[in-house]
Amino acid sequence: MKTHSPLSLILSFCSTFLLISAEKSSNTLDILMPDVIATHVDDYLCTAFAMDQDKATYITSFNPSATSKDAHHILLFGCTEPGSQEKIWNCGEMSFTDDSSAQSYKSAPTCASGSSIIYAWALDAEKTELPQDVAFKLGGSTPIKYLVLQVHYANLDKFKAGETDRSGLILTKSSTPTPKRAGVFLLLTGGYIQSNTEEVFEAACRIDQDIEMHPFAFRTHAHKLGLVNSGYRVRGEGDDQEWTEIGRRSPQLPQMFYPTQNDVTIKQGDYVAAACTMYNSQSHIVRIGSTGNDEMCNFYMMYWVDGDRLLHNDVCSSPGPPSYYFGHDRDLNVDKVPETAFRIPPPPNGPAPGEPLQGGHHMTMQHKANPRKRQHRYQYVF
Q1: Which of 74, 109, 169, 357 could join 121 in a cystine, given CB atoms 3.0 to 4.6 angstroms apart?
Q2: Is 256 annotated as belonging to a binding site?
Q3: Who wins on pLDDT, 42 or 26?
C-alpha cells in the first residue's frame, strides 16, 4: 500500500483548493468601476469591458456591489463599440463651468455604436437570477463586443473623504449555450409635471417585428415624485381590446428586476404600454431629466425568446405630458385601461399602509383612492 508524506498531502490539498477557487472565480465577471473619483453630484461615469470575441459568453445572474448612499443608479449596456477609449469617461448630459471641471473626465456617449440595455439597478436592490435555460448572450458573433458600466453618483461624501469608488455588478457567466436568449425592452417618456399636481406619463409602441417574446421580469424607475409605474401588453382592437398587466410597482421601493405575475406572450401586432403616476407637491415645475432633482418615467421589461433573435428596436419613447397620452393613439382604447394601472399596489410591490415612500413623499389616502381623473385627457378630436 502506497503512503503519502504529510508534505505531499498538504501540497495536494492546496492544489485542489486553488483549482476549486480558480473554477469558482472563472464563473464570475466583475464589472466594477476602476477606483473612480466623482467631482460633481449627478456625475454619470462610464467604463468599458471587452468581451471574448472568439466565443460567446452567457450571463445568468447579476449581483450588485454598490450602495444607494453612493450610487443613485447603475446601468449596464451592451455596445458594439464603447463611447470612448478612455479607461473612465463622463457619459452623462451634465456640463459644468466651475474650476473643478478641469479635473473631470472627458465626455463621450455610452456607446459609439450598437447600444442595448442589459441591466439596471437602484435603491439597494438585491441579486437578480434568470430563469433556467435563459441567459444574455454576449461577445462571440453577437453585436455586443463590450459591456459598458454607467454609474450615476448621488453624492460626493466618500470622495471628499479621500476615497475612490468601485461600485458595479458581479455577473455569473458560463460558456455553455442556453436554448433561450434574454433581452430588455425599455419604455420611457419626456414631459413635465406642474407644481402641486398629479400627472401620468405614458408611452406605448406597436411591435412590428415578427417575434414572440415572453416577459419574465420587470423593473420600475422614477425619482422622488414617482408613485407607481405599470406596464401592459395591449392586444386586439376596439371593444375587444385587452390590456394584460406585465408588472406594476412603486418606484420608491428597491429597483431590481422582479418576476412577472402573469404568463404573457407578446407577438407581432401587439402594443407594449407603460404608465407612470407622479405627484408633485413642490412649488415649481419638474421635468424629465438626468439629475436627481429631475424626474424619470422608465419601465423595463426583461424577456426571453427561443433562439437568438431579439428585438431590433429595444426602446419605446414618447414626448410625455402634456404632448402625449394614450388617447393620442387611435389604436389604443383608453376605456380598456385598467384602473389599477394608476394605483399603488399592496406589498410587496407597494409600501405598507401608512409607510412613507423612500423618495420622501407621503402617499395620502386621497391619492390612493382617486389615482387620477383621466376623462379630460382623452377627449381629443381627430
Answers
A1: 74
A2: no
A3: 42
